[in-house]
Design brief:
It is a single chain. The strands form ten sheets. The protein has a 22-stranded antiparallel β-barrel. By secondary structure, it is mostly beta strands.
Length: 818
């Protein structure tokens, strides 16, 4: 006992000394997962069980993995009735923020620790700062992330940066999703359910017996929801509806005990309609009678508009080969090809286009004549992408050394185009009623009536394409010296990456780009090389107490803005973070508490500014304030820092309580707009504040899970509450309050939110026929129908507008397993 006491004391001193070194560094940081070390398996309903993760490319318990991890199991996702990643907008993991890109569920913004996307990530030559991986395959676009999830085993949120093992575009972190593998035995899991807003869901997961060493698994998913906001135009789609379906087939071949080949094919269809933008309060302009203020969450739009679903189609192939030449070495190859097409149709902001300063509502037609006001801007976009990737890994261990080495090749080809035009017109200049314009109506063509009666007749406002090629090599090793009973583990890692982007911008605002009076296609031809190191030290103070410190870097690739006029290349943005964390278990594994803190630098942040639009008409160069956007790297050094904490407790058998908290602060240097800000050519040289978007300063989540075993069944109850303090949705759309006083600024911010979800189930009912089990459950998302504006914008003339969160949804389902 005395020897053991001195050993623990020595480890505590080692951990204290190490933390002191971290504390006096230029910045500090920490972070912690939520699982247990190597101990005997926990009893179900009693102790907390181990959570196995693959954050370091090898299976290990999260509690012994010295990085910050949050994990949602397949059961956790089912308890929250998560159909796709879009359902994580409620803040189930406080340091993770998922949100639609503006009004479009067809593209998702993903931020971790406040880093990821500052503004528009819905572009071919721009990347997100959080990597999303499914079974080790990187998903390169924000489009396609909203497809229905297949049979998920776990969803790991790896707090960033994760630049060493996961590479480019993981400066904020990575989401690592793994699906359930074929078992080689017959199993069936069938789910069917329905809910309000005409929703329904069906899933089928079939495991087939192994034949000739090949195990086959088939997954199918169908999910539907009617609009949450009704569109009053007959025959048009409503707002915030979806149809999702998909099939995944996986074959796992194990001809020998040391070799496996795992091939999977998946195809998905995702149709969703845009969110509805509400006018929350009027501005100084006079509002048309049609453009009524809707200060609370609406269920019927005030103006009927043409609207149709945005349709995404994704399919992919992946092949994973594993070979174990020895018990201490695994060689792995991950090969993939994926393709997606995504249309984006958005006509949800009619009310915000129904005001002006005179109160006489007029527009100009193609001939220049004054006509009643044209309004309701329909935004249409077509997006196509395909990608190939090849990764090799060598995962092994030697006495006192564990290592992983690898190399990656990735290439994607992306193209997009966009159209924007008005679909409605007031019937008179008082704008008390309206008509729907013909689909071929154009204000830039006098003889528009001769065009085909189709929205395809509308002009292309923007078009570009880009090819991205990335290659990289990485290595990471963990050494355990023969000290303090092997309680110290030192890890070092390094990754080299080279990115190249070659693209063309063909069209801006319906015309060939004009730069300095010269009209022509703009070209992107840029490449960047990058080295990302990582150092990590873990100290096992005892079996149940672990302290670690880590320094790592990451980056988001450079690129170009397809909404720009000049298509200028911008450089990668980078983060460098120190973090330190404490992971503990106590009360004989009935309680777990992990806490972390991190701090670091944020450089070359990619920010957007509006510039003048130039055209040549009749040989004359003209400038106007048409919307074009350039992206540049903010000067100076910003910073990120925060605190994260997770707590889990089983105070009595079958009851589990959980709580998580995240404090996040991001500072971006003020940046001057280098482009002309008015048609007269005025340049605004005054730096303006840059606000980090989609980043609540405070976020928290709490869960209650309770089971009551019965004879032949189990009652299960789940409740989770999720809070965030609100966030900015625009990075530099700053409103100046006062006569040109740049210090008197206002940036609108979304409301704070508290969303409660719940599930109640009579589970695993014994049907008395073999191992067949039935579960009947009811569920609710946003149980108390809380409403808040998560996206808010303000114009002094047009007024407040914003998007509300989703109304309460609920339903029931039946699950059969055998």
């Amino acid at each position: 006992m005395n020897i053991k006491h001195h050993t623990v004391t020595a480890r505590l001193l080692a951990a204290t000394a190490f933390c002191s070194i971290i504390a006096v560094s230029p910045a500090y940081a920490a972070t912690a997962p939520e699982t247990a070390p190597t101990v005997p398996p926990a009893s179900e309903g009693d102790q907390l069980g181990d959570i196995v993760v693959t954050a370091e490319k090898r299976p290990q318990t999260a509690q012994r993995t010295p990085i910050s991890i949050s994990v949602l199991s397949g059961a956790d996702l089912a308890n929250r009735h998560v159909v796709s990643l879009a359902d994580l907008t409620d803040g189930s993991i406080p340091s993770l923020k998922v949100a639609p890109f503006y009004s479009r569920n067809s593209a998702l913004i993903v931020n971790i620790r406040g880093v990821g996307v500052l503004s528009d990530g819905n572009q071919p030559a721009r990347d997100q700062g959080v990597g999303v991986y499914v079974n080790g395959v990187y998903l390169g676009r924000a489009q396609g992330l909203g497809t229905a999830l297949f049979d998920i085993d776990s969803l790991e949120v790896l707090k960033g940066p994760q630049g060493t093992l996961f590479g480019r575009n993981t400066e904020g972190g990575a989401i690592n999703i793994t699906t359930k593998k074929p078992t080689g035995e017959f199993h069936a899991n069938l789910i069917a359910g329905a809910g309000n807003f005409g929703s329904y869901k069906a899933e089928g997961h079939i495991d087939l017996p192994s034949v000739a060493g090949i195990a086959l698994k088939i997954d199918g998913v169908v999910s539907h929801r009617d609009p949450l906001v009704k569109n009053t135009l007959t025959g048009a789609s409503g707002f915030n509806a979806y149809d999702k379906r998909g099939v995944r087939v996986e074959a796992l071949w194990n001809p020998t005990s040391d070799f496996s080949a795992d091939y999977a094919f998946d195809t998905s269809y995702d149709a969703s309609t845009s969110l509805y933008l509400q006018l929350l309060a009027p501005g100084s302009n006079k509002q048309a009678p049609l453009g009524t203020v809707q200060a609370t969450r609406a269920d019927v739009a005030n103006v009927g508009v043409p609207e149709q679903p945005s349709v995404g189609k994704v399919h992919g192939h992946e092949l994973t080969l594993e070979y174990k030449p020895s018990n201490t070495l695994t060689l792995k190859s991950i090969t993939s090809y994926r393709s997606l097409t995504q249309s984006q149709y958005d006509n949800g902001s009619a009310a915000t286009t129904l005001s002006n300063g005179t109160g006489v509502f007029t527009s100009k037609d193609a001939s220049g004549a004054t006509v009643p006001l044209l309004f309701a801007r329909y935004s249409l976009a077509q997006f196509r992408q395909n990608q190939i990737s090849q990764e090799f890994q060598a995962i092994g261990e030697l006495p006192r050394l564990k290592y992983v080495f690898g190399a990656l090749y990735y290439q994607e080809r992306v193209q997009d185009n966009a159209q924007a035009f008005f679909t409605n017109q007031c019937t008179d200049t008082t704008c008390t009623n309206y008509i729907i314009l013909p689909q071929n109506f154009r204000t830039d063509v006098v003889n528009w009536a001769s065009l085909p009666q189709s929205y395809d007749s509308q002009r292309i406002d923007r078009a570009s394409h880009v090819t991205t090629t990335s290659v990289g090599a990485f290595g990471q090793a963990t050494y355990t010296p023969a000290l303090l009973d092997d309680a110290i583990h030192v890890t070092g890692g390094l990754r080299w990456t080279r990115d190249a982007k070659h693209g063309q911008l063909f069209t801006v605002n319906g015309a060939t780009p004009v730069v300095f009076g010269v009209s022509g296609t703009r070209y992107l031809d840029a490449h960047w090389s990058r080295v990302d190191p990582m150092v990590n030290v873990l100290v096992d103070v005892s079996r149940d107490i672990h302290v670690y410190g880590k320094w790592s870097t990451g980056y988001k690739s450079g690129g170009a803005n397809s909404r720009s006029l000049q298509y200028l290349a911008f450089n990668p943005e980078t983060v460098s973070v120190f973090e330190a964390g404490l992971k503990t278990e106590f009360f004989n594994r009935h309680a777990r508490f992990n806490v972390s803190a991190y701090a670091g630098t944020y450089k070359n942040v990619q920010v957007d500014f509006s510039g003048l639009y130039e055209t040549i008409v009749g040989g004359v160069l003209t400038r106007s304030n048409r919307t074009t956007t350039e992206t540049l790297n903010a000067p100076g050094t910003g910073g990120i820092h925060g605190v994260e904490a997770d707590f889990k407790l089983t105070p009595v058998p079958h009851l589990t309580l959980g709580a998580s908290y995240a404090y996040t602060y991001v500072r971006i240097p003020s940046t001057a707009n280098p482009f002309p800000a008015t048609a007269g050519g005025t340049v605004n040289n005054t730096p303006v504040p840059i606000y980090q978007t989609y980043t609540p300063k405070h976020g928290a989540s709490a869960t209650i899970d309770y089971e009551v075993p019965l004879q032949g069944a189990t009652v299960r109850a789940h409740l989770d509450g999720n809070y965030d303090s609100g966030f900015y949705a625009n990075g530099n759309d700053v409103l100046y309050l006062g006569a040109g006083n740049p210090g008197n600024v206002y940036q609108p911010k979304g409301d704070s939110a508290f969303i409660v979800n719940g599930t109640l189930a009579l589970a695993d009912i014994d049907m008395g026929r073999g191992d067949a089990r039935v579960t009947v459950s009811v569920w609710a998302r946003n149980l108390f129908n809380e409403q808040h504006v998560f996206y808010r914008a303000l114009s002094l003339t047009s007024g407040y507008n914003g998007f509300f969160n989703e109304a309460r949804t609920f339903g029931g389902q039946v699950q059969v397993k055998f």
